[in-house]
Amino acid sequence: MCTGACSKFIAIPLYILALVSMICNIILFFPDFDTKYAAAEGQITEEVKYMGGFIGGGLMILIPAIHIHLTGAKNCCANRCGMFLSIGFAAAGVLGAVYSLSTAALGLSNGPTCLWSNQQSMKEQWGAPFANSSGNYLFEKDQWNWCKAPKNVVEFNVGLFSTLLAAACLELALCAIQMVNGLFGCICGTCGKEQ
């Protein structure tokens, strides 16, 4: 496969993954699909505010994806210089994917912020009950009942942060592949008429 065609093949999934990451991050601001938690102080999971999915997995992937896609288009960036620049853009994408991956992993590890109580702490309070559990709560679903509000917040956070984690891993792999592809395109050309 020619390096320009490979760039197009890489860019299209990056667009989709960037969109998925941005949407997941936005939805995380509204647990139980209710705006009252976003408006209140201290009722949103801290890792959501880092905007890892929106900035890292979204914008920092979307911008490189546009340039990577253009390296496969004729009469634009489909030349050795464009492929050289795509290495830098892909490296920026790698940084964005790593940021998204780390915030999603941290969000999964610490668990959601919720109104909670358990046998040790009978008084209901807002906080992150699983923050010191090292992610063990993920395998002990009976602990998920500690969170009283928002309803099903643990499932909500686990689902969306897992989606962000998977998207970031794929973005990381695709950007790394594009760095190698860009290097070959810079050395060998893009299979177009203008090299």
Give a verbal description of the structure.
Strand 1 and strand 2 form a beta hairpin. The chain is mainly alpha-helical and 195 residues long. It is elongated and about 65 Å long. It is built from 6 helices and 3 strands. The model has no long low-confidence stretch (mean pLDDT 87). It has one domain (3-39, 46-112, 127-188). Keywords: Membrane, Transmembrane, Transmembrane helix. Belongs to the L6 tetraspanin family.
Roughly what fraction of the amino acids lie in strands? under 5%
Helix content: 55-70%
Q: Main β-sheet: number of strands, strand sense, barrel status?
A: 3 strands, antiparallel
Distance between the termini: 16 Å
**What structural class is derived from the secondary structure elements?**
mainly alpha
Coarse shape: elongated
Could you give the count of β-strands?
Answer: 3
What is Rg? 21 Å
Low-confidence runs (pLDDT<50, min 5 residues)? none
Order of helices and strands: HHHHHEEEH
The count of domains is: 1
Number of helices: 6
Give me the side-by-side strand order of the main sheet.
2-1-3
Average predicted local confidence, pLDDT: 87
In brief, what are we looking at here?
The chain has 195 residues and is mainly alpha-helical. The chain is built from 6 helices and 3 strands. It has helices at 3-28, 36-39, 46-49, 52-70, 80-110, 153-188, and strands spanning 114-116, 125-127, 147-149.
Could you give the topology of this structure?
Layout: H1 3-28, H2 36-39, H3 46-49, H4 52-70, H5 80-110, E1 114-116, E2 125-127, E3 147-149, H6 153-188
Antiparallel strand pairs: 1-2, 1-3
Helix pairs in contact: 1-4, 1-6, 4-5, 4-6, 5-6
